[in-house]
Amino acid sequence: AGLGVPLDAEPHELPLGRGEVLREGEDVVLVALGYSVNEALKAANTLKEKHNISSGVVNLRFVKPIDKPLLNALAQKYTKFITVEENMAAGGFGSAVLEALQDCPHHPKVKIMGVADTFIEHGPQAYLRQKYGLDADGIVSTTLNFVKNQ
């Protein structure tokens, strides 16, 4: 209810390979794409309101080409990244972020959130997001553990 990624009033061409910072933070940055961006925004609100954790949120938009300049800039600001995707974690979006960060002079700790390398049953999207911890509550839980234990 009003927490999704806002749509621009007028359609416009997205710059190829460029992400967008949707929310600034201090403690951790949630880097997501697709529907996971909405869940990351909800999680960031909960983290701030209930746990006093300031989370940046980035809609990276593209895996290829990935926005290396933006990731480098984020690595200069944040020491902790969490990538969020609704795909297999192994060899997916989070791996692409790690590859893009490997040459950055600042090396943040990165937690990849995605689906484990296992058979995924069919079901309603909300159920599957909850089951695999990729909904806002799962992102909050993962972020709390990551921020407090790293």
Structural class: alpha/beta
- Work out the strand percent: 15-25%
Can you tell me the residue ranges where pLDDT is under 50 for at least 5 consecutive residues?
Answer: none
Task: Report the major sheet.
Answer: 5 strands, mixed
**Number of E-type strands:** 5
Radius of gyration: 15 Å
Query: How many angstroms does the end-to-end distance come to?
Result: 33 Å
User: What's the shape?
Assistant: globular
Series of secondary-structure elements, N-terminal to C-terminal: EEHEHEHEHH
**Proportion in helices:** 25-40%
Helix run count: 5
Mean pLDDT across all amino acids? 91
- The strands making up the biggest β-sheet line up spatially as 1-3-2-4-5
What does this structure look like?
The chain has 150 residues and is an alpha/beta fold. The protein has a five-stranded mixed β-sheet with strand order 1-3-2-4-5, with helices on both faces. The N and C termini lie far apart (33 Å). It has five helices and five strands. The chain is globular and about 35 Å long.
Can you describe this structure in just a few lines?
The protein has 150 residues and is α/β, with parallel strands linked by helices. 37% of the residues lie in helices and 20% in strands.
